[in-house]
């Protein structure tokens, strides 16, 4: 996390989204989680683009499920108030793959990261409705759930 402003925005995001209190260590885990899942999506998108004989990854190549699409919509609504997208754009890695990303794909990555953020916060609460302060064990459980699905 780069600045105190971005840290406080993400603390507020997790508080408002799932009544979770996160600290700097959580935000480092969060950043790793988001970038790992974006990478997973982009690897599948690259395979789809290759299967369609294209050399550029298009938004339609991204394997966005119904649930993730709903989380992206929730993020868009929340982001109007919180303005997290520019921070996510800065934090979201664009790993070097065998193919380039279209401009449209690049533009969608921060909102996808936002949707993953909403889904992550909700997953914490699904796994433990009483959870207030996630620790390493809770982060690992959430990561395992996402690894199974993505």
Classify the secondary structure makeup into a structural class.
mainly alpha
Give the rounded overall mean pLDDT: 94
Strand content: under 5%
Instruction: Write out the CATH superfamily name.
Output: Histone, subunit A
Walk me through this protein's architecture.
With about 150 residues, the protein is an all-alpha fold. It has one domain: Histone, subunit A. It contains six helices and two strands, in the order ααβααβαα. The chain has a two-stranded parallel ribbon with strand order 1-2. Helix 2 crosses helix 5, helix 4 (about 85-90) crosses helix 5 (about 105-125) and helix 5 (about 105-125) crosses helix 6. The two termini are about 25 Å apart.
What's the layout of helices and strands?
Layout: H1 4-18, H2 24-51, E1 56-57, H3 66-82, H4 85-91, E2 100-101, H5 103-127, H6 136-149
Parallel strand pairs: 1-2
Helix pairs in contact: 2-5, 2-6, 3-5, 4-5, 5-6
């Amino acid at each position: 996390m780069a600045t105190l402003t971005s840290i406080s925005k993400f603390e507020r995001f997790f508080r408002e989204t799932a009544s979770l209190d996160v600290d700097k260590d959580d935000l480092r885990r969060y950043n790793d989680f988001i970038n790992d899942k974006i990478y997973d999506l982009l690897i599948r998108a690259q395979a789809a683009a290759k299967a369609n004989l294209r050399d550029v990854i298009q938004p339609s190549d991204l394997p966005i499920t119904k649930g993730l699409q709903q989380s992206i919509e929730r993020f868009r609504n929340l982001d109007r108030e919180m303005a997290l997208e520019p921070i996510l754009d800065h934090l979201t890695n664009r790993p070097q793959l065998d193919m380039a990303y279209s401009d449209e794909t690049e533009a969608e990555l921060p909102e996808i990261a936002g949707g993953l953020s909403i889904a992550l916060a909700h997953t914490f609460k699904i796994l433990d409705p009483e959870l207030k302060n996630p620790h390493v064990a809770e982060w690992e459980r959430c990561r395992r759930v996402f690894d199974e699905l993505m």
